[in-house]
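User: Quick sanity check before I run a bigger batch. Here is a single chain. Can you write out its predicted 3D structure?
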Amino acid sequence: MKCPPVLPTEELRLKALSAYGLSENRALPDLDPVVQIAARVLDMPVAAVNMIGNDHVFLAASTGLDSVEVDLRRDVSFCAHAIAQEGIMVVPDATLDDRFHDNPLVTGPAGIRFYAGVPLVSPQGHAVGALCVIDQKPRSDFSQDERTRLRDLAQMAADRLEPFAPLSVWHAASTYRQSLKVSKTKGSGTRLRPWDVKRAKAICSAGRYLR
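Assistant: Done. Predicted structure follows.
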């Protein structure tokens, strides 16, 4: 078994993860539809969003794992490997992969054979977790179309995490004021993400920064 690598930007990555305020005791219901869709459209028994901490992994959302005891140590995590590379990581048969053939998640009750995962990237560009689908039987037919669907769903998951990302009051005020200017200027090339404007307005209102 090969342990997942520590990223060169690990300290910054962990700070980005910490800023979301997430933990193993705080599941995210907003992500439930994403994992349910992933399992259904890709015909997989298990789908999950795993957030990768310093030495452990916690499930932000999952389906198909209710009756399975999962080892959540980072050292054995497939998703911890997935965040170390760009794009999708596909393992057709874990028993034939040098990284995983003797991994407890393969030899133990979880019985992982097939895995596919895509990193979830923070607004600062740090991979804080991954969306994955899992099967207990090998699959060599994971198509390009299915890979595209998984990447699209990973982007959906990242978008749903966005409201938990930190936003300072100063930046909130700046973002909301910018949105007001853009709305008055037709043809402006500035693009603001709707969730940023919504969060900015809420923070500004709470802090009485709307002047």
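The CA atoms of residues 70 and 108 lie 9 Å apart.

User: Great, the batch can go ahead then.
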